[in-house]
């Protein structure tokens, strides 16, 4: 597979995404509390934690699907909270893959991949088809170009969703529990694609309950609880010798297996 290249930041010590003092409040409930972390070029950040810990909300804030209550998010040192920066342009560079696929049911597999390239990137149909074919082949869906989503398995739908995100040629990909809606036998095919993306140098932030995947693939693992980053370290530390007792308790079943 072709390796991904960092389009702007060529140095690993230059954050592609920087989250600074980020908070999110829904009503009287503070879902995210003073979140800080960096994502560098070719990083694979896996965010783990119990349901309700704020993981998905954090990802939605990074993509600006939810407006943060306070704090800053920087993309290549540009503050995306600044109203002068266009959110649509930012989202074209920071793609997102959802747990529920979010494919257009009235479109074919190929059309699903082409539509964003044409509508958002303003590319012509010839280019959109070429780039879509490239990434559908990459995720193993090149034989299903004319199929509609209802004809596909959950794993196939998610692979199309990944190809659609890749067709935008983003600098960063966000994954919100991409395997949680899949039957167990379909999980492996999606994780295989994601492992290949990591191997090829795609910068990713992944919310996941797949602990073995997070341990094996991440460059850094973040454990969240009650809207707070409890621990942020390399996977060798998080999964083998975490410093925080809450991390140890959360991972106890996994570590003992």
UniProtKB/TrEMBL annotation:
Residue span(s) of domain ABC transporter: 17-251
SUPFAM superfamilies, per database record: P-loop containing nucleoside triphosphate hydrolases
GO molecular function, one term: ABC-type amino acid transporter activity
Gene Ontology CC terms, in alphabetical order: plasma membrane
Name of the molecule in the record: Glutamine transport ATP-binding protein GlnQ
Keyword ATP-binding (UniProt): yes
Gene3D superfamilies for this protein: P-loop containing nucleotide triphosphate hydrolases (3.40.50.300)
Source organism (scientific name): Clostridium butyricum E4 str. BoNT E BL5262
Membrane topology, record value: Peripheral membrane protein
């Amino acid at each position: 597979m072709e390796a991904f290249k960092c389009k702007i930041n060529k140095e690993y010590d230059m954050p592609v995404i920087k989250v600074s003092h980020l908070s999110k409040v829904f009503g009287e409930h503070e879902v995210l509390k003073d979140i800080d972390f960096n994502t560098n070029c070719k990083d694979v950040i896996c965010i783990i934690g119990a349901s309700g810990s704020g993981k998905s909300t954090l990802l939605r804030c990074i993509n600006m699907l939810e407006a943060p209550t306070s704090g800053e998010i920087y993309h290549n040192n540009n503050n995306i909270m600044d109203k002068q920066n266009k959110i649509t342009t930012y989202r074209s560079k920071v793609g997102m893959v959802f747990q529920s696929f979010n494919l257009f049911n009235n479109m074919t597999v190929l059309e699903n991949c082409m539509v964003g390239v044409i509508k958002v990137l303003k590319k012509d149909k010839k280019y959109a088809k070429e780039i879509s074919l490239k990434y559908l082949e990459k995720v193993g869906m090149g034989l299903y170009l004319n199929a509609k989503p209802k004809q596909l398995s959950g794993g196939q739908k998610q692979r199309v969703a990944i190809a659609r995100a890749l067709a935008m040629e983003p600098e960063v990909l966000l994954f919100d529990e991409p395997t949680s809606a899949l039957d167990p036998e379909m999980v492996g095919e999606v994780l295989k694609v994601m492992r290949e993306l990591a191997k090829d140098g795609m910068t990713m932030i992944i919310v996941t309950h797949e602990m073995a995947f997070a341990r094996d693939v991440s460059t850094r693992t973040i454990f969240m609880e009650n809207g707070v980053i409890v621990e942020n370290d390399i996977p060798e530390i998080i999964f083998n010798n975490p410093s925080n007792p809450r991390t140890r308790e959360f991972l106890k079943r996994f570590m003992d297996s």
